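User: For a benchmark we're assembling, each entry needs the component sequences followed by a predicted structure for the full assembly. Here are entry 17's components. Please fill in the structure.
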Amino acid sequence: MGGSIKKRILRLLDLSAGLSPAHYRALRWLMTVLMVTVSVAPLLILSAFNHIQYTSTLERELERPLHTLVSKSRASLELFLGERFSMVSFIAHAYSFADLNDPVIFRHVFLALTSEFRGFVDMGLVNGQGRQVDYVGPYKLKGADYADQPWLREAEIKGRYISNVFLGLRDFPHMIMAVHRLEPDGTRWTLRVTIDITQLEQSLMPAGPDLETDIFLCDNSGVLQTSSRLYGKALDTLPLILPPAGSEPTVRRLTDNNGKQLLVASALLTGTDLRLMAVKSGLAAWRPWGSLRTELLLVLCGGIVIIVLVSHVLMKALVGRLQAADEHRAAIFAQMEHQQKLSSIGRLAAGVAHEVNNPLAIIYEKAGLALDMLRLQEGAAIEQRRERLISLLEGIENTVERARGITHRLLGFSRRMEASRQSLQLADVIGESMEFLRREAGNRGVSMAVHLPENLPSVISDRGQLQQVFLNVLGNALDALSDLKEGGRIEVGGKLADNDTVVITIRDNGKGMSPEMLRHIFEPFYSSKKDKGTGLGMFITYAIMRRLGGDIVVQSQEELGTTVHITLPLTPPDDMEVI
Amino acid sequence: MRILLADDERDFVETLAERLALRGHTVRVVLDGPSALAALEESQPDVLVLDWFMPGMSGLDVLERVSVIYPALPVILLTGHGQMEDGDDIPQAQARIVLTKPLRFETFLEILEDAVHGTFQRQGGDS
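Assistant: Structure for entry 17:
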């Protein structure tokens, strides 16, 4: 496949291939496609690279505020909870069970606490048996039994406890903090406070997230601890799988159960099971990028359209110029070919004139002799010379016949200058070409011989053009032999090279050519014959052979002679041009 | 007049010889260059009529030799070409005339006379 495409391209770029409009259309297509590819490819690569770069920059830009928000909010939450817990812990250590068990003191302490810190709902004192012996707050919980409550057990074991948000006995979302004390006299008691989570939520808000960013607390199992703009009230369950969280804020991309794209930053609150999460919904996050991407795409598409248009117009102009140049070249070539044709006709004419003038001279002399006999000799003598007169007149007839042959041959040749395609016996074509040169060869003492195998198949080709080729090559051979006093030989051989090619070999034992001459032999206006040649002979010959689908190769050695191999297909290529 | 005709076209040269003989000239016919040189030696003609193109040794080759051996011998060259070809190739030697075939017989006779009697002039051709 690749090979055939390469071949096609090479064929298209081969300027000698032809002048058909289809050829130039294909060439224009190819060049346009190439130019568009070469121009668009870097543009696409650049755009893709830009896209990736910009996406990652934008992601960083989107992540940073979330990261900052979570960091700051965590700090303020931890401060909020830490302060309150410290206060509770301070009270537990500053007062003994006996002090706090006094309702007046207990109430006083609670009031002092709430005057300093917002968010405390109530406070309770739980004795070693788990019974709440003292209580300040809006509920009637004095005497409540917490003996079986897990938080109490955990507080007793660890000395301190911060709960998740729960409804509990109070029927609104709250969280509790508890500090356990073991006094030196063995008294065990626990101080417990309830914290209103709305205060917690308010401490989240000062970070001031924009409307598209949601920030909330949740526990390990995904239960909301504060209300969320996106996911509802506290104690609702989050519709997404929680990402693993550490003490350092991490930002991840998630998809929630509704299929919404999210950018989520989360971090654990120190000392609790709670995690702080900031969520930016995908749609909002990507909006600026979306518009930028549209612009980028528009620029890209516009660029491609412009490239295609410019390539099309440019290539049309370029190929048009190329076509004009090729046509110009073809016209010049045709002119040269015509000149060469005229030159070879000139050479023929010289030979033909000689051939025709000789018989004319014979006819003139024979007729003249007959007249002489009739004029110069008297009555009886004429009767005696009757036989001689008849033979003279017969001689005239024969000679006219001979002249007719010559003129017919010439007419045939000039007719064959016109293009045609026909089945040809190469032996005939070579023989005819030789006939034209036989006289010249005779005068120069050159012997010409043709040895073609009997079974050489006929070829389909152009007779006139082939004859021009043979005339030129044979004529060159004759010229190469002109300095040779005697023994000049031209031998023509041939064979079937393979199933569809014939090779004709024309060999002379003339003066040969130097390697320098051989190198230039097919170049136009290169002649070794000084003023005599047009310098176009071999150039045209080569062009004709290529056009006929054949080839011509010249081997030569100085002083030894030249061999010309002419290769010809049995059937010509389909696009054989007819000029 | 003794005339030596050298031409490879037998029909032409023999008929021409017969016509000249009818007019009382002594004519000898040869068909190639070497024979012409041999016949010159033997028959010492007054004029040599040479065909330019003959196989083997051409008329020019013969003329080259003749101009050395018989510089005074008038020579008439015959050519079948319509136009004179490479006239400059003819060696600058003794009297020479180039005639184009076919010849007008009367003109040819006149030129022969002129050549032999030394009143010839160079001519490019004959109509």
